[in-house]
Amino acid sequence: MVSLKREIFSHPQFRWFFLGRTVSLFGSAMTPVALAFAVLQAPKGQQLLGYILAAEMIPNVLMVLIGGTIGDRYRRDVLLLLSNIGSGLSQAGVAAIVVLGANPYFMFPLAIINGVLGAFTSPAMRGIVPEIVDSKDDIKQANSLLNVSRNSAKIVGPTVAGILVATVGGGWGIAIDAVSFFVAAFCFSQVRIPSHPPITQATIMQDMREGWSYFRRHRWIWSITAAFALMNAIQMGVWQVLGPIIARHTFGSAGWGLTLGIKSLGLLVASMAMLKFQLRRPLRECMLAISVSGIPMIMLGQGYALPYLVVGAALAGAGSAISGVAWDTSLQQAVPKDKLSRVCAFDDFGSYIAIPLGEILAVPMSRIFGFKSVATVGGVIFILVALLPLIMRQVRQMTPECIQSLSSE
């Protein structure tokens, strides 16, 4: 067990980054519930929801490798500033469409813009952490604190969004998300990373190939990424698309918002615990913990009452927090800084590539086999896939010390 290093907040770079990330995540936590129930009210809303989510994810996946390469070539603090301004503008457009009751098909170009901006944001966000903390030992503390803030926001966000949907409409929740991006952009404008990327004569394609070469050489990275490719497709299809549909015909939007909020409570509690505890086998614990996320999918499919689903969601949230901290910390400690955004981009690309397929096929498959049957089978497959990388000895046995030593390769 290790003590919390409060000195990490003494560094203004991390303080501003932490504040901006927290504000942005608070707004973003409201959008899934607000957007889902706003779209479901439209004609053919069930299928439209999957298409809109896919419209954001597809360009994100297609562009993330370029985003990762840009993140290693240029200043990550500047990239975060510009991408958050752009996201604020696009989300303001989505909010206006929902509030004014305009044609929901107008959301598609804005969803595409959000996907492209996210492709530049994510690799820079993951890559900047080692640049704003003092040492590799501080990286886990930083990731744990960021997870605490993320999940604290998510406890409030879905619950507030559910209330807004039931009263004044979900468009106002999306509007709050737009404002949060602008506030985050101001915070990121105060972040000044101490180092500049080295000047390189290599082309973007050459840099991308270099990142791919590093990624494929390390089997522990790509094997876990491959597992997450299928797991994310299942989770987004079952939980993100089918979840609100099943909830709408059972316990309602407020109950679904509560479920997401309680899941975030599990995320928060586990994130706080990760501030204190050191994982002995980070990669093993990463996959064991994430496997728990299959449980609430099974419960949703089996028609468990809301109180039982809430408990399952809380356990899944705790597992997701442990897995997220373990995985991000392992990558940030093992991968050299000049390759980190590119490796994270390949991780994102592999992890997200099948998500649009899961989002698009969720409703058609449910109409053939039944909504609850698809949710149940999806949960079972999710658990099995999560446990598959544990076949590798390196994944089961790698220690934190071994992970840190990899950065010198």
Automatic annotation (TrEMBL):
<keyword id="KW-1003">Cell membrane</keyword>
<protein>
    <submittedName>
        <fullName>MFS transporter</fullName>
    </submittedName>
</protein>
<feature type="transmembrane region" description="Helical">
    <location>
        <begin position="287"/>
        <end position="305"/>
    </location>
</feature>
<keyword id="KW-0472">Membrane</keyword>
<dbReference type="InterPro" id="IPR010290">
    <property type="entry name" value="TM_effector"/>
</dbReference>
<keyword id="KW-0812">Transmembrane</keyword>
<feature type="transmembrane region" description="Helical">
    <location>
        <begin position="21"/>
        <end position="42"/>
    </location>
</feature>
<dbReference type="InterPro" id="IPR022324">
    <property type="entry name" value="Bacilysin_exporter_BacE_put"/>
</dbReference>
<keyword id="KW-1133">Transmembrane helix</keyword>
<feature type="transmembrane region" description="Helical">
    <location>
        <begin position="220"/>
        <end position="242"/>
    </location>
</feature>
<feature type="transmembrane region" description="Helical">
    <location>
        <begin position="254"/>
        <end position="275"/>
    </location>
</feature>
<feature type="transmembrane region" description="Helical">
    <location>
        <begin position="48"/>
        <end position="66"/>
    </location>
</feature>
<keyword id="KW-0813">Transport</keyword>
<dbReference type="GO" id="GO:0005886">
    <property type="term" value="C:plasma membrane"/>
</dbReference>
<feature type="transmembrane region" description="Helical">
    <location>
        <begin position="78"/>
        <end position="100"/>
    </location>
</feature>
<feature type="transmembrane region" description="Helical">
    <location>
        <begin position="369"/>
        <end position="391"/>
    </location>
</feature>
<dbReference type="InterPro" id="IPR036259">
    <property type="entry name" value="MFS_trans_sf"/>
</dbReference>
<dbReference type="Pfam" id="PF05977">
    <property type="entry name" value="MFS_3"/>
</dbReference>
